Amino acid sequence: MTEPASPASRIDALEIRIAYLDETIETLNSTITAQWKQIDALSREMLALRERLDDAEMKSETGSPPDQPPPHY
User: Fold this and answer.
1) What's the pLDDT at 73?
2) Does 40 fall in a domain?
3) Mind listing the pLDDT tens digit for each residue in 37-61?
4) Is 64 a domain residue?
């Protein structure tokens, strides 16, 4: 049979585990922060493109309709 681990070795193991968990949390936090920045930039770009599309649609509505034949017919 194996002997039970001493309290000191159990504490050491827990401290090592906590250190790895802290590192993992920091890595995840930096990844989430980078992704949030990218999502924010893409959202702003999409809004700008949507505004450009709306402007282009308004300009095309005021022009001649696309179904009308050219004047030489």
Assistant:
1) 59
2) yes
3) 999 999 999 999 999 999 998 888 7
4) no
**Residue 5 CB partners (closer than 8 Å, separation 6+):** 13
In a domain, 72, yes or no: no
pLDDT value of position 63? 59
13 has pLDDT over 90 = yes
3-class DSSP assignment, residue 1: coil
Q: By residue range, what is the domain housing residue 34?
A: 28-55
pLDDT of residue 29: 98
Q: Find the Cα–Cα–Cα–Cα dihedral 16, 21, 27, 31, rounded to 10°.
A: 170
Domain presence at residue 35: yes
For the chain, the domain total comes to 1
